[in-house]
Amino acid sequence: MSFKIGPIVGAITILLGSGAAFAEDSQRYVTVGHDKLGNSIALDTKTIKGTTYKLYGMYGDGIFETTFNASCTESRLFLNHIAIYSSGGELLQEDKEKGEIPFVADSSPGKGMQFVCEKIGARGW
What we know:
This protein is of the alpha+beta class.
């Protein structure tokens, strides 16, 4: 089963693995951290809806997509969805368990939240 992510997996993989991407992709994906192997974790600026945002990172030959929702005024962060995709964009695994996670400013989810809260002009950001 392939989703919309299929056509962009290659661009995301190039960006995350080597740090290089096409000009349009480099503006779309903002690096917000790195995994333990040094691969970038990127915020997809085109999919931000209100305070909901997605982060992408390398996972084997494919990528993972994690969706978060930020409560900027309360400095609270919520995990909404995790999906793992093959290099061809096929959904391999999905976890829809939702819940609050600690806001850590220096973490990738925390930096993504800061970007989103600043973008919407939330007070205190």
